[in-house]
Amino acid sequence: MSRDYDVVIIGAGMVGASLACALAPSGLRIAIIEAVTLKNDYQPSYDDRGLTLSPSSRRILEHIGVWQNVLPAVNSIKKIHVSEQGRFGFTHLDASQTHNNELGYVVVARSLGLALHKQMSSFENITLICPAELKSFKQSEAGMSVEISYSDRSELISTGLLVGADGSQSMVRRLAAINIKEHDFKQTAIVANVTTQKPNQATAYERFTHHGPVALLPIEKNRSVLVFTVATENADRYMSMTDAQFIGAVETEFGRRLGKIAQVGQRRSYPIKFIEAVEQYQQQLILLGNAAHSIHPNSAQGFNLGLRDVAGLAECVFAAIDKGLDVDDISILESYLSLRLPDQQRVMRFTNRLANSFYNKNSLLIPARNLAMLMIDTIPIVKEAFIQQAMGIVGLQPRVVRGPHT
After folding, report:
1. Host domain of residue 23
2. How far apart are CA 51 and CA 56, in angstroms?
3. Which has the closest alpha carbon to 187: 220, 156, 163, 210?
4. Could you report the per-residue pLDDT of 176-209, keeping only the tens digit for each?
5. pTM for this structure?
6. Number of domains in the chain
7. Which residues does residue 229 pair with via DSSP β-bridges, in sequence order?
8. Residue 387 belongs to a domain
């Protein structure tokens, strides 16, 4: 059976668009299906959230030809300061104390989205179908038949591999009847850009409070992206505050390390849940990004993990092509999971333990948390291990993450 496409990706958000760019040089015919018009201000993947990119993510974005386009909107993180409200323990990381020029980078999601779609449009073998929605699919030995709908009609297209990169509420996952493990942290992240009285000195701050982490991520000299985590039951109250009231609430929790907050931009809220798909792949189908694993944002690992998954899948697809295999060969997905599962499990354990540790009311844990932060701050080998974890270069990784000499 001749196919319309070799790969169909559901979801043109950052993970889906990154995969399309990563696979395009193979010559495979790729379709990417997106329900929300990309110029829509409410396109959920491309809003004003600040994304923290690890050095491993930079390598991947360089490899797929996107980094140079987004570079004007990228801000380096030279220092990271982690503390707990009302406690003595803290951790201070400085790029000058490592072998790296930067500990990470911050970019507004909208800017990265524009760069990804500019790169996608440069490939003739990528077809963007938007706005359109996935309605159903049918698997067979001959290939995958996918039904998509437009505002006025439906269409059947065929593919060798269907990729669900459609977020934590994935329709692909639902139609494939893949169960999930789920935990509601009962927290909501409120995100806004803020202007501070003092320059941020390329420093990312994260402060753990009794209701969730408060983070400030540098995007310009005196501007940062604020991630203010609150109990979900109180989220509406914070969202309905005047700017002055909200600034007062933030300063009460974060303090005035950067002086007064002079201005706050539009606020948006994002409920925080942990989701893990029990299966990540079936014959001719795979889940990527938040469709496969949605994690707590307490260490800014979510998109970085998804991007390493993109690199891993692309590596396995290219290796299969070199062997003369078709894109629907199940060994591709088996190899992918063997490559990526250890990293996924490590990051999920880390973020869940961090969430449970800081929001556990057991008083016996308080001195242990503070001791752990002091150990990271004062013992070089412990600090280096922590930095390697944050940079996304621990353990088995795709070749593009490991670098050209491995």
Report:
1. 5-72+109-181+274-353+393-402
2. 14
3. 210
4. 999 999 999 999 999 999 999 999 999 988 887 8
5. 0.88
6. 1
7. 189
8. no
